[in-house]
Amino acid sequence: MASQDLPWYVLYTKPRNEKKVAQRLSEAGYTVYCPLQKIRRQWSDRTKVVEEPLFKSYLFIQIEDHRRDEVFTFPGTVRYLFWLRRPAQVRQVEINTIQKWLGSTTTRIWIYQTFDPVISLGLPLESFLVRRLYCWIALNIRSLYNSKN
After folding, report:
1. How many Å apart are CA 85 and CA 27, to the nearest integer?
2. pTM above 0.85?
3. Residues whose CB is less than 8 angstroms from the CB of residue 24 and which lie 6 or more positions away in sequence, other chains included
4. In this structure, which long-range contacts are made by residues 93-100, counting pairs with CB atoms below 8 Å and at least 24 apart in sequence?
């Protein structure tokens, strides 16, 4: 099966382990995507721009169904996100949309913490309110509504 034909699964990680887990899985040959955003952080003595995961404790992995359990041998992995008793799948077009959105020329992206995440169906990745420049947008991952493709 070609890499483009494989489904993307949502992998839940231990808190603040997203980048480490993504790096370990990539080094082992898996196709992994951990969307990162640049955030300006203020400390008492300085301001610094750091990269943080767009979805805290989540990353996307493209893997064959029968190999899904292999990822649990890597430290920091917890479980897959499930929807309707099946592992939630994200379509390639939605991964491309996230990549395109994060790769745009804007340099400042904020997650609005008060409503992050917005949950109406009980899914932590269903909808995020994101402030981009000076407007608010809702980033919806529609595959989680219907993971059948």
Report:
1. 30
2. no
3. 74, 75, 76
4. 94/141, 94/142, 94/143, 95/8, 95/33, 95/60, 98/33, 98/35, 98/54, 98/139, 99/33, 99/35
Cis check: omega of the bond before 35, within 30 degrees of 0 = no
Rounded (5°) CA angle 80-85-87: 30
What is the token pair recorded at 120? 């109406």
Amino acid identity of residue 36, one-letter, is: L
In angstroms, the CA 109 to CA 133 distance is 7
CA torsion, ordered 36, 37, 40, 43, to nearest 10 deg: -30
Query: What are 76-87's pLDDT values in tens digits?
Result: 999 999 988 999
Residues 6+ apart with CB under 8 A from 100: none
Residue whose structure tokens are 């080094």: 27
